[in-house]
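Lecture notes, unit on protein representations.

Consider one protein chain, 378 amino acids long.
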Amino acid sequence: MTAISERVSEPTEQQASKRVSQSVFDGSRLRVVLLVDVCDGAQQQFLEAYEQMGKQVASVPGHVSDQLCQSIENPSQWLITSEWESAPPFLAWVNSEEHVRMVQPMHSCIRDTRSLRFHIVRETGGGRPESADRRLQTSPRIGDGVIRHALTFTVKPGSEAKVAELLAGYESPEARVDDTTRLLRTSLFMHGNRVVRAIEVRGDLLAALRHVARQPGIRAVEEAINPYLEQDRDLNDQESARVFFTRAALPAVHHVTSGQDDDRVERHALFYPARPGQGMKLAELLAHEDERAADDPASPVRRSTVFERDDVVVRLIDVVGALEADPAAALGIADSARVAELTTLLDEGAAKKDGDLSRLLTLARMDLVTDRRSAPDA
């Protein structure tokens, strides 16, 4: 985490690429907003838990400040806001086991939470002098209205074929969640005993996840794979389910598109096991390389999304043609000078410094289990 904090603390002036609709690597400051609904009568317990957590988070690299606010209309509603030097140190902390343990005392007195993260684009008032270390994103990103998220977990060795069969055979949930939210696509891959489920949603991601979890068919599949999971969970126990899905969250940290539409594209996923503590740096390398490739009309990669959590990095790509036709482009390192840097960030099992990109592509390639798109709105 220290390396991340040092890297993004340098003054920068960011110009958002029009091809990149989402990225945590802008170098600009981050505002995190947490909406909390506290159980009746548990306000004092919640306050004490927050104060204890506040003492711990104050020493986390990249943390600047935070505020706790209580609604003037409904005392059960609270708002926690925090400011961070940039997104990477926040994500490194919020996705860590330390954070899971730190927030556990708060959940016994909370009915519901909602977390929102924003890059700071403009700032006015307050009499705060401008300085080089108060970095703002100089131009807004133009999104495509799609939220991308993934979940990842591991299953017991030897159960991979059975789990793949179960995950491929479920009945697709209703795409329409409500008037503003719709499921667009679910892509599920496996790499050894690791499962990655990537979803695309238009509207409210949390509403979509809850909608999917309520579907009887999905619930039946989740129950069926429970015996094969390496991390035990009980979906009937709210705390057990919360901890499991907190640890399974694999956030999207970068999305880029070439802007070229092509009916020939096929979806693939690549798994990059990072050396301990190098996951975010590896994700950033891939993100910058994908951004450069998006400007090359000859690149076979039409879209790329990088997901990262701890030392797990997954790159979801839509490609024209076979991956083997251009291993460097498929791996996201078309610049040969960056191959050595990539291998220094991979764990020892994948980082043989022989420059064999075909071997590396074979090691990284994930097996497709199912890829489902919802029908367009009538």
